[in-house]
Amino acid sequence: xxxxxxxxxxxxxxxxxxxxxxxxxxxxxxxxxxxxxxxxxxxxxxxxxxxxxxxxxxxxxxxxxxxxxxxxxxxxxxxxxxxxxxxxxxxxxxxxxxxxxxxxxxxxxxxxxxxxxxxxxxxxxxxxxxxxxxxxxxxxxxxxxxxxxxxxxxxxxxxxxxxx
Length: 164
What we know:
Blueprint: H1 3-25, H2 32-52, H3 68-87, E1 97-101, E2 107-111, H4 112-136
Antiparallel strand pairs: 1-2
Helix pairs in contact: 1-3, 1-4, 2-3, 2-4
């Protein structure tokens, strides 16, 4: 399997997991610390996507708190934009450098593959935090899937790339 296919699957899973959390948030009063972490997860994904595309945003936005309606729109936007970015990206592009300014104002350069890994790991880390916080608030979080082939049922189809 080409490396890019692994990233396409990871971002399809990320979108699916974000939608699952959004379903939990839809009809409940959500504690501020949950909304704060949820917002950070989504805003960080947008910041990294913008950095990859060469459009730097103010990193202080990372700690803004979104409403559920705003986060719902952002979840849809991120799913669409990540899928579009990865759709025709050749595997060799994963080794290109991405230059950006970090949150402390320092210039930084990282490989695209490393950035993509960071984005999905960062999101998974914060979804774990959200699960703990939801349980503490008496809210049932979405069930985490086991790692079996059925995990990817219901995820958008991911086209196998022909590039190696």
